[in-house]
TrEMBL record:
Catalysed reactions listed for this entry: tRNA(Sec) + L-serine + ATP = L-seryl-tRNA(Sec) + AMP + diphosphate + H(+); tRNA(Ser) + L-serine + ATP = L-seryl-tRNA(Ser) + AMP + diphosphate + H(+)
Protein name in the entry: Serine--tRNA ligase
Residues spanning the membrane: none
Record: residues binding L-serine: 219-221, 250, 273, 372, 374
Coiled coil region boundaries: 33-93
Listed PROSITE patterns: AA_TRNA_LIGASE_II
Positions with a binding annotation for ATP: 250-252, 266-269, 339-342
EC number: 6.1.1.11
UniProt xrefs under NCBIfam families: serS
Amino acid sequence: MLDIKFIRENTDLLKEALIKRHYNFDLKKLLDVDEYRRNLMTEVENLRGQQNKSSKTFTEADLAKLRELKETIQNKEAELKKVEEEFDRLMLLVPNVPDPTVPEGRSDEDNVEIRSWGEPPKFNFPIKDHHTLLTDLDLVDLERGTKVSGFRGYFLKNEAVLLSFALWQFAMEYLINKGFTPFISPALVKEQIFIEAGKLPQLRDDLYATDDGLFLAATAEIPMMGYHEDEILKEEELPKKYVAFSPSYRREAGSHGKDERGIFRVHEFMKVEQIILCKAEHQESVKWHEELTQYSEEIVQALELPYRVIINSTGDLPFGAVKMYDIEVWVPSEKRYRESHSSSIIHDFQTRRLKIRYKGVDGKTRFAHSLNNTAIATPRILHSILENHQQANGSVKIPQALQKYMGRDVITPRSPKNVV
């Protein structure tokens, strides 16, 4: 959430940001409601002052006037409550202001590549896509997954399970060595935390809700942002560097017909997520944004996967983000890069809603800045690992960084008698 004072004082900047984002929002309505709200608050305060003054000196003759004044105040307070509810609703719909370095565009087609690493592998044999590899190596059961969980349901099996555990452990250990505190975060989260984390009301159609007012987390970022809700930290505690593992759930609303084969786009997946709370300085956020992105790049490099880093255009920028990088990993069967990681600067957009503050050495209290970035997401990353490391004999080479967790260096086809 942006500060309303900032919005009032930077109306032209907000108008420009809305145009760049191609986001439809009635800024004038918000400002009109805000002005009416402030005038009404002043009126109510004046009436309360008048009531307090009159109650000290009133006579029997003034009793009727006092009753009338009390009724007027009650009516104005009821009106103010409705206006404040409308103001709060509108404030939740104001997106963050993109950084000047974010390229303008309408969609992900306007994202800009800023660097790449590794060369796409050249195969001297007919390659298989990840769905075929999963099937041939007996690593997944999609038919029974659909029977049990419905559309996009899946069971991972055999080395796909071991590979997933290896990836989580590798990412966790890597980031712990970088000074991150490890967490397993809850998957069930209160609706209010989703609102304060900047995910609701915008993403409601993409979330799973329970009957008792809880939602299934779409990423560990959400519960971890709620971890310090309504707290005042000390400046010397910052930055807070957390790495959290969590089951994650998304309806993938609007993705019907996309990636229906295999495990690239699923409703239930696991994520290891990086979260940082830092001082409320733009350059501090920029420093950590680059560092978080570097950590994820080093993880992907260790997996021996060619990738590129792109900066997301204004039309592909999440609602609460100031700036975002995506890491896209090479997919041989599709001859293109696909998104595997997202790294975002949020500034105080989340922390203002969550009331996460810190007391500076100067004694002033400020809202912290927040950042987040994927460390690893499974089973999506298996898509690229299997395809990039496939061998001519139908096996898949395990990246060296994962071999110590797997206890082997290759996934080989099973004989028919061992297939379940």
